[in-house]
Amino acid sequence: MSIVCKSGSEIDKMRRSGRIVRQVLEAAREAVAPGVSTMDLERVAERTIRDLGAKPAFKGYYDYPCVLCTSVNDEIVHGIPSARRMLKAGDIVSIDCGVVLNGYYGDSAITVPVGDTITPELQKLLEVTRESLFHGIEAARVGNTVGDVGAAVQQLVEANGFSVVREFVGHGIGTKLHEDPQIPNYGTPGHGPKLRDGMVLAIEPMVNIGGPGTRVLDDKWTAVTEDGSYSAHFEHCIAVTRDGPVILTE
Ligand code: MF3
Ligand code: CO
Description:
Distance between the termini: 29 Å
CATH class: Alpha Beta
CATH topology: Creatine Amidinohydrolase
Strand order of the largest sheet: 8-7-9-14-15
Oligomer: single chain
Number of helices: 4
Number of strands: 15
Largest sheet: 5 strands, antiparallel
CATH superfamily: Creatinase/methionine aminopeptidase superfamily
Number of domains: 1
Bound molecules: 2-amino-4-trifluoromethylsulfanyl-butyric acid, cobalt (II) ion
Shape: globular
């Protein structure tokens, strides 16, 4: 395992990629509505990425066919956009996007309600998952460890009665989409690699209402909950700096 630390000017480049990802996700979020397909979101995202002068990071990565992952309801991550998958009121959809600009990657995800009303339980799922991401970010400090980040995410999720997915994890990011180290959303405080100035991490909690189990559909990509319970996903890229964590994807 080798963890690459980034210079200040590299982190500036990653902020530019991160800002583009944010704009893509906001454009996709605005397009979310009952009767819209996940392929409609893909088209909005693809156009926005090109208009902003970046390249999609996911399309072609291990032969993944799209610029977005769109994961609806019990789908956890890596849902493939489809013209047949219509969003309906009360659904939740995770929108995950990566781009590359000037050789540096950005990667971020949000989970969005469809229509004006989702159940209070789903509302809580979205809030807790987003809050768990910020707990993890708070723990991403020089001298802490990867285990401290995972433990912070896990603690908040489990205190709220939800469960953390184990089979998919966050990651280092830089001149590649996936770099060392892996960033699990669970862990033991003080364990794992030490965080150093200049490390850039994609932290991405995936949280299920029911049990933590997962399975992958026959399309070989879409990860769903084993028990059919709904799942949410939020992701930011952050730089570990002497002044604390800096979010690059906002
Ligand atoms: N955000 C996900 C990740 O960091 C998406 C990668 S999916 C792939 O792993 F399509 F790019 F493979
Ligand atoms: Co990621």
